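User: Predict structure, ligand fe (ii) ion.
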Amino acid sequence: MSCRIPTRSSSTAGQKWWKSIVYTYYEWCRVAPTATTFYRVPNRHFAVQATSTGSSSDSSNSERISLVIQVPNTPGSLTQPLAVLGKHKVNLSRIESRPTTQVKQPDAAYDIFVNVSDDTTSCVVNDNNLVNRIKNAVEELTSQGIKVTVLGEGLDSSSMATTSGESSTLSGIPWFPRKMRDLDAFASRTLEYGAELDADHPGFHDKAYRERRQSITENAKKYRYGQPLPRVDYTEQELKTWNTVYTELTKLYPTHACKQYRYIFPLLEKNCGYSPHQIPQLEDVSEFLRECTGFRLRPVMGLLSPRDFLNGLAFRVFHSTQYIRHHSKPLYTPEPDVCHELLGHAPMLADPDFAEFSHQIGLASLGASDEDIDRLARCYWFSVEFGLVKEGEQVKAYGAGLLSSFGELQYALSKEPQLLPWDPFVASKQPYPITQYQPVYFVADSFSSATDKFLKFAETIARPFSVWYNPYCQTIEIIDSLEKIMKIAGHTKQSCSLVTEALRRLDGK
Ligand SMILES: [Fe+2]
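Assistant: Predicted complex:
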C-alpha cells in the first residue's frame, strides 16, 4: 500500500492521479548544515491522497473495500461466508484472521478481514456492479446470522446508511467512518513510510533499524479498536536518541511554547513518564488525554491519507507512530516519529480548547469532497502543525511541527517569517514551500476564537448534511432531517437547563 510521493517537479498536467501534492507532500529541508543547523522535524501525518481518475494501474485501488466477517472457532466455519462471496462473484485479494476484539464475544470467535478486488477493473470506486454484488453478498450473510462489517472508501455511502432516509442523503458521498471501530479500516492503509523507507532516509542502509521498525509497525497494523495499545520496550540506543531530542527541545519550551503547553508538560512528566531518560508509552499518554479531553492515541504504521487522518480526529482519535528516528541524526527525521507525536502533539491534545478545535477540523472532513479535504488539510497544516498564538504582547508556538523542531521553533518566533492573523479562508488557499522553513505562519488570538473562525469556514464545506458526534456511543450521527435536528435541540435544551440551574444555585449562595 505504500505509494511513492512525487515531487512538484515530477508532477505534470497528465498526472491527474496526484491531486493533493501541494499541501500533502513535505520534503525535509535539505539545506546543507553549516554553522547554523537547519534540522527540521516532521510535521505531517498524512501522505498524498491517491485520488484515482480511473486510469491508474495502481493495484492498491482494488483494496478499498474490505469486509470483517465474524466466525466461530469451529472447523469449516469460514466455508459458508466464502461460498456466499463466491456465489455473488466477489473476488478477494487478501484474507487475514485474528481473535475478535469484541468483549462480549467468546474467546473462540474470530474476525476474518478480507479485501475485495475486481480483476476486471482497477477502480473499485466506479464499479457499481461490484458494489451491488457486495451488497447482495452482505445481505445474504446477514440473513444467515453472520455478522459482517463493511469498510472502505470505495463503497457507495448508501450501503452504510443506518437509519431510514440516510441512504439518499449519503448517496455519492465519499465513505467515512460512523463508529469508532470503523477506524480499524485505516490500519493497513498507510501510504508511505511505516516499514518501508526512502533511499535518502537516514536509516535506509541500517538493516537492524529497518527490522526494528518492521516489528513496531507490525504491532500497529494488527491493532484493533478496544485492545490495549502496544507497549514498546525501547533499546538503549533509542533512549539515547530520545534523550538528545528531549534535552534540546525542553530548553526552548519556557520561552517559545504557549502557556497551555507549558502548563500541561509538567503534568505529563508527573503522570505519564515524560523524562529525558524514558520514552513514554502511547497507552499511558492516551489514557491521560482521555481523562483530560476525551482524545486518545491510536498506533499507526506510517502516513495516512489526508482524508483518513482527518476523519480520525472526528472521533477524537489521533493516529500516532511509535518508532523513533534513526540514531545517526537525532535532530532530523523525514517523517513523524514518536518524538514528534509525544513532544509535539500530545501535550496540546490535553487542552480542552485546542482539542475542540482539532475535533471540529475532523468533523468537517467527514464526507467532504477531495477539494474540500485539500482545503481542510491546509487549515490543519497552518494550525495544528505550524500554528502560533497570541499571549499578551507576545507570540508563542502551539503547532506540533514547531514544538518538536529545535530549529524551526526558534525561526518561527524570530523576525524573519511573515505572521498573519489566523484566517482559515486564507490558510485554506495558502501555498507553502517544501524545501525550507515556512515563510508564513498564522497567529490565533486564542483557541476558542480560532475555533469560531473555523466553524464559519466549515459552513462552506459542500455536503448536504451536518454531522454530530455522539460522545456516549462514540458514533457520528447524520443530521439531515427535522427529527434529528429536534434530537440535537433536546440536548441543547438540557445543557441550557443545566446552565440555568447552576446560575440559580450560584446566585443562591
Ligand atoms: Fe504532526
